Amino acid sequence: MHAQNPVFIPGPTNMPDTIRKACDVATLDHRSPAFAAMFRPAVAGVKRVLKMDAGEVFLLPATGTGGWEAAITNTLSPGDTVLAARFGMFSQRWIDLCQRHGLTVEILETPWGQGMPLDRIEAALKADTDGRIKAVLATHNETATGVRSDIGGLRKAMDRAGHGALLFVDGVSSIASMPFDFTAWGVDIAVTGSQKGFMLPAGLAILGVSDKALAAMDSATLPRTYFDLRDQQKGYAAGGYPYTPPVGLIAGLARSIELLEDEGLDAVFARHHRLAEGVRRAVAAWGLEICAASPALASDTVTAVVAPAGFDGTEVVKLAAEKYHVAFGVGLGAVAGKVFRIGHLGMLSDVMVLSGLATAEMVMADLGWPVRLGSGVAAAQEYFRGTVRLAAAA
Amino acid sequence: MHAQNPVFIPGPTNMPDTIRKACDVATLDHRSPAFAAMFRPAVAGVKRVLKMDAGEVFLLPATGTGGWEAAITNTLSPGDTVLAARFGMFSQRWIDLCQRHGLTVEILETPWGQGMPLDRIEAALKADTDGRIKAVLATHNETATGVRSDIGGLRKAMDRAGHGALLFVDGVSSIASMPFDFTAWGVDIAVTGSQKGFMLPAGLAILGVSDKALAAMDSATLPRTYFDLRDQQKGYAAGGYPYTPPVGLIAGLARSIELLEDEGLDAVFARHHRLAEGVRRAVAAWGLEICAASPALASDTVTAVVAPAGFDGTEVVKLAAEKYHVAFGVGLGAVAGKVFRIGHLGMLSDVMVLSGLATAEMVMADLGWPVRLGSGVAAAQEYFRGTVRLAAAA
Amino acid sequence: MHAQNPVFIPGPTNMPDTIRKACDVATLDHRSPAFAAMFRPAVAGVKRVLKMDAGEVFLLPATGTGGWEAAITNTLSPGDTVLAARFGMFSQRWIDLCQRHGLTVEILETPWGQGMPLDRIEAALKADTDGRIKAVLATHNETATGVRSDIGGLRKAMDRAGHGALLFVDGVSSIASMPFDFTAWGVDIAVTGSQKGFMLPAGLAILGVSDKALAAMDSATLPRTYFDLRDQQKGYAAGGYPYTPPVGLIAGLARSIELLEDEGLDAVFARHHRLAEGVRRAVAAWGLEICAASPALASDTVTAVVAPAGFDGTEVVKLAAEKYHVAFGVGLGAVAGKVFRIGHLGMLSDVMVLSGLATAEMVMADLGWPVRLGSGVAAAQEYFRGTVRLAAAA
Amino acid sequence: MHAQNPVFIPGPTNMPDTIRKACDVATLDHRSPAFAAMFRPAVAGVKRVLKMDAGEVFLLPATGTGGWEAAITNTLSPGDTVLAARFGMFSQRWIDLCQRHGLTVEILETPWGQGMPLDRIEAALKADTDGRIKAVLATHNETATGVRSDIGGLRKAMDRAGHGALLFVDGVSSIASMPFDFTAWGVDIAVTGSQKGFMLPAGLAILGVSDKALAAMDSATLPRTYFDLRDQQKGYAAGGYPYTPPVGLIAGLARSIELLEDEGLDAVFARHHRLAEGVRRAVAAWGLEICAASPALASDTVTAVVAPAGFDGTEVVKLAAEKYHVAFGVGLGAVAGKVFRIGHLGMLSDVMVLSGLATAEMVMADLGWPVRLGSGVAAAQEYFRGTVRLAAAA
User: Fold this and answer.
1) I need a surface site. Which of B64, B165, B267, D92 has the fewest CB within 10 A?
2) Which CATH number fits domain A17-261: 3.30.365.10, 3.30.70.100, 3.40.640.10, 3.40.50.720?
3) Does the reported pTM lie above 0.95?
4) pLDDT digits (tens, 9 = 90+) for B11-26
5) A 59-118: CB under 8 A from D
6) A391 CA to chain B: closest CA distance, Å?
7) CA A35, A41, A45 angle in degrees (round to 5)?
């Protein structure tokens, strides 16, 4: 009888009932106008969420990893060079993917807990006088460390360097929960997945692709079929797909966008900021640190809590699951054991966050961490009390 | 994005997904063997939950109020006398129902916050030397005050009085969440509703009826058709109903019983006791009182928290709904404004309770009640930490 | 793998997915504005479907039988006389209910297969010079025989008799599938259930009550509590219920009305007429008769097919269920064995009807009935082909 | 009100309610034991359905096309040669995929309507004395033409040729609806998708991979990350995935296998054969031909009906959708316009098939095809009547 405890993993997120129901579609003919009528609003909605005023959106039956692969294979050729910072597990995985596909990755090693090193990127681009670097890979929100990077700043750095590289942004754990501006930031490909800010089950890789990136498709020679966006484009023009689309997820995506826009995107972002700030106040009240090296870097969708010396963050996650049936995220890669993570993206309320904080407190106490019961909850309560806008129950 | 906050009303309760899905049945022929195959296990399961070893269970398309009416109209005749204590809104409503149907109700006025006055009942029965009193009405769990009565003790009192009255028990907010023993307690009719301990939507009145009560049906002359249990009996014998049954609720009831028995009824009762005790520790830590006049009377399914002098409990409920989208119960009748109620029956976990307590704290602080943020949560956390049995996540 | 065959019982009907989902509501506080926001549109929608311009609609957690009981007990007193024709199982059941509640029923025995005998009713009313008759009970659509009665004509007959009796109409198997005009027909109480034209699960009795009938409530002395419409009225005024309402069914009813009005009520009625006519053409092609004594009496929601001499209609129903997993309706009461019934109300398409006809043909052939395979299907196909309006797939 | 008409496209198929519900899973932690407990039975079940006694099953968040790509990229290297027959749209697409990934495809052009040319394959393998051919691609069931190929015979031909090529089988529209024997046929990779015989939504590519094929992974140098089965293997060993798995589809797959095994795989295959034979009898009664060149080639999951001279099969599909809201499949590629296709795989009953046949008849009549209404239905009815085994309704 604990099945309804919220999850606090940094995705998949808790899902609203209405989205789950929207995903549960009786079989329809995906070559019929009925499907096109469902598909087109989803695509148009994603463009609004990403703030795209040109280019194309693609909805691939895959996860975010598939989205990364699609970004690379549709625009680059074997031997091409890309520039990336490595400062967390997800930036690392994207680098690895590039390498497996025969790209050369110029890696800027960056301490975990830091964001993208804009000055070093600028320098690397300036140094690339012969235009070897075809694309810059940016991890907007490092889910492993709870660190956000400044993509608008990155665009400015690229502009200052006067470099024409494509800008690819991993927005998997940021898009639809934190501000994102495809157009203003000059993004060429943005990648996310259905199971994060869109609050859907996993299974849909969502890509926003600029006209510049679309133009790169014809010369790109990395092999691809399943992820070949040219086939997708042809299908979309006819209201369909080159293969059987995940109809339910697309219907759910359309519903998700309705929910997001009913709440208002700015209100959604403000809600996540408020929830995140409540979590951070709790962590501070516990006397603990977060992994993000500075307040400006702190993510609004996931917080990595640093274990005190002598304690193991993974134990928090294990015990919370076993004893209280609540899911948090473990530390990954370089911060394995050193942190535990509280996801706070997607469908979430202040009340739900308080149950997560209360659970974390019990577990830390159980494990002997020097944390006082109720202390983090009280700090979050105090913050939440003062920041809710009184509104009629929806 | 607050739709998934738990509710803390004393019913309807939070519902497990699996029960909601079980209730959602495609249309089938309710005169077919397929329906009988669904219906019979539900009836048999209710017998086990009530601990009946004889008699019959009836599942009526109605609410608990309909169950009360069925109990009365099937066993009594105009002018008959019943004995009842009035000590809360629900005992009051049952009395009112009897009066509307032309029964004489001998009422034992009892302070709200007390349980059934066993000694006065015994005395009244002893005084009834000519057997005027045909039935004793007992409210097992007064939902309005969070008070449980001692039905086993009531049976002993009736036995001591040597009185042959029928014993009718309103177990609407107790059955399937608190111990109930139809056989040992010599209950003649037990009434509950689907939306409480069985964690279903409202719409099913559930009655356990003893052979003695069944035998009373033929001489009872109160008019009834919809609730006529003789028609039901005839239908059940053929695996069906005298009218169209609520197939989904019956399927859901069968699923509910599976869940309850998978957890184990004793474990279910222990869970509710633990959750209730956590709530009571929180109330004590807030420096507040509960409505139940003594610890032994405190219900394990709902706690009525008494507002401090000068404060209005109803305001807590209103503000919690408006500001935090969390539902508590208002005070009813004689305790309107004097209490607010925290329901903790049905599908609920310790983690969910903590979110309710945290919310109540915020609201009380918002309203200027002398309650320290985190205090009740900490008391409940401390209690919950020590009382959970470590088990593998289900 | 046959679970998705349509049902052809005369209710409960096949249900649209969207209605099933609307019924599946997470628990909400039924005393909150959120419930009122769900409840009021359902009530207003029923008024539109019934074509009421005054009076009140009540949604009771019960079935149609409960609706009948509510109609009687809220307006009449013990010993009152009502006038009714008996011409099928459902008119018989309503008569029986009245008798059990101590009313005197003046019964006009009428052959099964006929409709209400308007001339005899007029005569009976004219003969009732001292106003003994308080109400006329009318079965709009006799589900047992597939016969519709002329309620507009009945109103004229009552007017010609100059009699002030209330007019109570059982519209259980007609409302929302066949034309109904509460206002023009001067109906005082109309009763239906959720599981018929509204395509919901069973569990909601739906009543339209005129101001004249409402005014009768205060003097009516038949006992009632669960069905007391005065309590309902008080609750509705506050946006709520005197007890826990069936929230899911009410939400589903609101959705049902959206579907009906999106299609257009006249289009819904035309659809049922077309489907019924297809069934009747098939029956004629089989060389069989229907129970309705004349074409004008033939119901658009259910067709009772008369078994040829020497054959048993019930066998069709049994074999269809066992061999093909398709549900038809058996004959009831006076026509038990003499007919089998094909329900065609609620959510149904021409294509679904064809599968029912094809199944009935196989079964009749299996049983040795003199029916040629494909003959009824072909007749219905021919009719359906010519009567569909070409429209874009929804 | 036509949303519940069955679909007759050759996938996605009609879905049982219970599978749809199983797919609708509240968010859980996919790194938890709860996920492993859901995942392992699904993998084990697929092995039983494929009749694998060694090797590994992979469940990729993709469609069948992704499964093809995974088969190729995990076992082959740029420049490798594969042998394939081209005799329909799906064999063509797989060939195209290989070519895009830099493989050399030795193509055996084969008339559409024929199956795989075993003798020519044998000859080609015998001629490949230097072992250039690394894999033979076999399309078990050509969905475009409704033709099944003899995979057991293909294995024998390969054995006679004494050639060690890998055997890759596209079983997308056969597996779980038609007999398949991974072990006996010596299959190295079998590919299917969730939306066909498994009756799930699209979104899961399902691969059975032999130990021999697994051994080929390390030397294969085609680039892949998303589809890299080595990453999957590592994840599976820990009960998880290299990225977020589609939890709902995996839960649904486990439920699907329960349904298939409850019915019995042989009974499932027999059911599809019976339904297919009913369709073929109807086509014959219409006086039309099917695309499959001989009875032995006729698929049990999809029938391509050849349009008479002067008529366009695509018009049938268009008009059926517009006028009757029923989905059939158009002809693709070389048979575009020349056929229309009736899918009869997945969840389907004889009664549902009859509604499809009746609809096709109406449409053909509407379009002036020389087809008599009811003729095909009657032929199918006659066949279905004689071949159903009388069983109690489930």
Assistant:
1) B267
2) 3.40.640.10
3) yes
4) 999 999 999 999 999 9
5) 61-66, 69, 96-97, 100-102
6) 6
7) 145
